[in-house]
Amino acid sequence: MNALVSIIIPCYNAEKYIAETIASVINQTYSNWELIIVNDGSTDNSIAILNQFLEKEIRIQLINKTNSGVSDTRNKGLEVASGEFVTFLDADDVWHITNLEKKVNFLTSTDYDVVYSYCQMMDENSNTLDEILKGENDPIVEDFLSLKANYNTAPSGVVFKKQVLEKIKGYDTNLSNNADQDILIQTLAQGFKIDVIQEVLWDYRIHDENMSKNVDVLEKDSLYLFHKCEQQQLFYSFWFKQKCFATMYYMLSGSWWKNGNNKLRGIYYLLLAFITYPASIALIFKKKLL
């Protein structure tokens, strides 16, 4: 279990959290890693903080570039990664000390190509929240297309065999918010296998600057991703496609209504969900009653 792990952190104005994130890498019980931090044109104090770590830790390298978005930034790190395994850690998340050890051990002792794990939610002050994101064994493409709520796709918890990322050519640079969902869909579509370690091995930070709270980006990414999957013929039937699109529209409806402060757009997507798959209205009422 001595394979090199390439850890890629995309960093953009992450001065609040980046030191804690890097410290969680340095403290790993698995020590054969390289940390590639790609600075995506930060304008805050991130660089000064990163330089402090560079002076002390030879396993860390820094790449500076102009701002181009999170997916292109991750791909830039992937271009120079030399590890047998690759993982992408967001600059505000934190690993538990055995995260890498347990995931590398899993991938080297099974025939799976990708592994993720449960994660604990925490707030901006690193206080633990009463919520754990879980997952299920052996997901399939249809699970992600149908937006099953029991899959945690955040990149900080996922470790890939490098050959997977080479085959699917990394992240789609047209996506940001939904890039993590897409990369797992593409992984499964190429016949690779994903599994979950049913243990909390990292912390996902919730704060006001989370990308997932930007409903404009969520809308753009969701529509792009589903049309991409439609072009790739990943929906196994017409009505399954309609049901999946309706579920996505319903999700956008709730996001605009609650987080986007645009109830009119929320109503638009609710109506679009009903038109796309009329039976979806029954599912909506069922969820409300449960």
Summarize the structure.
By secondary structure, the chain is an alpha/beta fold. The chain is built from eleven helices and nine strands.
Features:
globular; 9-stranded mixed β-sheet; Spore Coat Polysaccharide Biosynthesis Protein SpsA, Chain A; 290 residues; alpha/beta; 11 helices; 2 domains
Description:
44% of the residues lie in helices and 20% in strands. The protein has 290 residues and is of the alpha/beta class. The chain folds into two domains: 5-205, Spore Coat Polysaccharide Biosynthesis Protein SpsA, Chain A (Alpha-Beta Complex); 214-289, no CATH class. Strands 1, 2, 3, 4, 5, 6, 7, 8 and 9 form a nine-stranded mixed β-sheet that branches. Helix 8 (215-231) packs antiparallel against helix 9 and helix 9 packs antiparallel against helix 10 (263-276). The chain is globular, with a radius of gyration of 19 Å. The mean pLDDT is 93.
